């Protein structure tokens, strides 16, 4: 017999439309738990107890157990420890400083967030939000207010979807419970919690204006290449396009370019749990991106996800385990309707390690990575692509030339951030410019990349030197 949690997961994977929390069987419990926060002036303890109670009730609903009361939770529980500290810090320091307010963040903004949950049906009606499923080429638009309601539900952990469940193979998580809990690498989680609180503070501050502007939207597009959409790279006569190489700065610095997200195949990766590298940071600075976690199924090899209009609300300092909240950020790069002009394309790379490293030069893996990059590049109207290299241990020289092939086939120019990788700083621009000067085509570079493995010494344990090999094959 299939367990109820697994059955719920299978039902969501097969559904075409998102079931909203106000449609759940335990919605009355959620409503009765949050209503006192909306109508009163809640303390931090009441907020944390409400989240804990909803989490427990969700588990009970899935298991068929009886309801647990609020009285059985502790505000010092490890399940909300990080959020507890973030609320203290935002209440005492960031909210007074950044918003010039003498009011309490917890007593002013948190009731507003709770009310967004209760008002979700008003802004995201039943059967109005569809999934972007595997193999689908489609777009979903979510209003800015609707996105705030969906993320408010994530804050209070009302979604049925279970976090960190090995059986959940189709969607990423959507509730913030993993980010709120105690963890050995505590610093990045605290930073991301502060970014989330700042997002809600900003939405609260501008809510009346947001409601008056129906044109404020975030667009999520799933790109799926059919067999006929995939170019014949080997025989392409297209010329290579231009490349700018920067050792300093980050992908998000190029405001007018398509910005690449080196993603997990589950969109957002660990953005709402323990992750703290490029994708997770970007989704924390721009929380509206996390709506993609709700509606997008896992990416296949021929797919990408394009997010347009997700606003940046926070700044950051540091990276990975040194990540810190950098304060409030005002996104001024907007169109005439007030929508952020930020456009992000999520693509997931193959994961390699020391044992499998040599296999990335195999033609099948080169093909997979070029098709994935092309899926990420080809459907944007932006002429330039801001990119770099991800954290999945691929050869940086090979990755840069794979993207050079894909960008040229998509007729886009590259802005490449090396993050101070010396081999790329010293040689990437020179190599691409030499190939352009010689008239090397997409097909010739593609064939050169596929030939590297046959020219490498089979007896050597060292990895091929991609740039050196390409120069030799193309006689540069």
Automatic annotation (TrEMBL):
Hydrolase keyword on record: yes
GO BP of this protein: ATP generation from poly-ADP-D-ribose; carbohydrate metabolic process; nucleotide-sugar metabolic process; regulation of DNA repair
Keyword field contains Hydrolase: yes
Source organism (scientific name): Naegleria lovaniensis (Amoeba)
PANTHER family, per the entry: POLY ADP-RIBOSE GLYCOHYDROLASE, POLY(ADP-RIBOSE) GLYCOHYDROLASE
Class in the EC hierarchy, top level: hydrolase
UniProt-annotated binding residues for substrate: 264, 278, 319
Family per similarity comment: Belongs to the poly(ADP-ribose) glycohydrolase family.
Domain PARG catalytic Macro residue range list: 231-425
EC number of this enzyme: 3.2.1.143
InterPro entries named among the record's database cross-references: PARG_cat_C, PARG_helical, Poly_GlycHdrlase
Keywords of this entry: Hydrolase
Pfam families recorded: PARG_cat_C, PARG_cat_N
Protein name: poly(ADP-ribose) glycohydrolase
Domain PARG helical residues, every copy: 100-222
């Amino acid at each position: 017999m299939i367990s109820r949690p697994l059955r719920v997961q299978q039902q969501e994977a097969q559904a075409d439309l998102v079931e909203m929390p106000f449609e759940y069987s335990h919605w009355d419990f959620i409503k009765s738990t949050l209503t006192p926060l909306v109508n009163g002036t809640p303390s931090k303890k009441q907020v944390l107890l409400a989240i804990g109670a909803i989490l427990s009730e969700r588990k009970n609903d899935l298991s068929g157990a009886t309801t647990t009361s609020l009285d059985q939770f502790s505000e010092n529980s490890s399940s909300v420890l990080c959020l507890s500290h973030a609320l203290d810090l935002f209440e005492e320091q960031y909210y007074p400083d950044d918003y010039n307010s003498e009011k309490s963040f917890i007593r002013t903004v948190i009731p507003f967030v709770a009310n967004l949950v209760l008002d979700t049906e008003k802004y995201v009606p039943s059967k109005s939000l569809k999934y972007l499923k595997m193999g689908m080429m489609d777009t979903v638009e979510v209003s800015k207010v609707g996105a705030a309601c969906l993320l408010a539900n994530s804050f209070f952990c009302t979604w049925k979807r279970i976090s960190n469940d090995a059986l959940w193979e189709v969607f990423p998580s959507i509730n913030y419970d993993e980010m709120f809990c105690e963890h050995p690498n505590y610093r990045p989680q605290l930073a991301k919690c502060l970014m989330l609180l700042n997002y809600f503070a900003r939405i609260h501050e501008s809510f009346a204006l947001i409601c008056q502007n129906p044109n404020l939207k975030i667009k999520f597009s799933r790109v799926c290449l059919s067999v006929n959409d995939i170019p014949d790279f080997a025989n392409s006569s297209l010329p290579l396009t231009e490349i700018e190489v920067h050792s300093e700065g980050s992908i998000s610095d190029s405001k007018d370019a398509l910005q690449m997200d080196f993603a997990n195949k589950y969109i957002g990766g660990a953005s709402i749990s323990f992750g703290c590298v490029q994708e997770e940071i970007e989704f924390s600075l721009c929380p509206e991106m996390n709506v993609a976690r709700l509606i997008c199924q896992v990416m296949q090899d021929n797919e990408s996800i394009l997010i347009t209009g997700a606003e940046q609300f926070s700044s950051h300092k540091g990276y990975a385990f040194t990540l810190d909240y950098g304060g409030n950020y005002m996104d001024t790069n907007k169109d005439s309707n007030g929508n952020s002009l930020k456009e992000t394309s999520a693509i997931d790379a193959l994961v390699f390690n020391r044992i499998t490293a040599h296999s990335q030069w195999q033609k099948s893996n080169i093909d997979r990575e070029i098709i994935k990059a092309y899926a990420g590049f080809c459907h944007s109207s932006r002429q330039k692509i801001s990119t770099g290299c991800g954290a999945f241990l691929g050869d940086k020289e090979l990755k840069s030339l794979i993207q050079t092939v894909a960008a040229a086939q998509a007729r886009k120019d590259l802005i490449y951030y090396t993050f101070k990788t010396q081999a790329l700083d010293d040689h990437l621009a020179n190599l691409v410019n030499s190939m352009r000067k010689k008239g090397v085509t997409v097909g010739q570079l593609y064939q050169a990349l596929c030939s590297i493995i046959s020219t490498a010494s089979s007896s050597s344990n060292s990895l091929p030197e991609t740039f050196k090999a390409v120069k030799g094959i193309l006689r540069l």
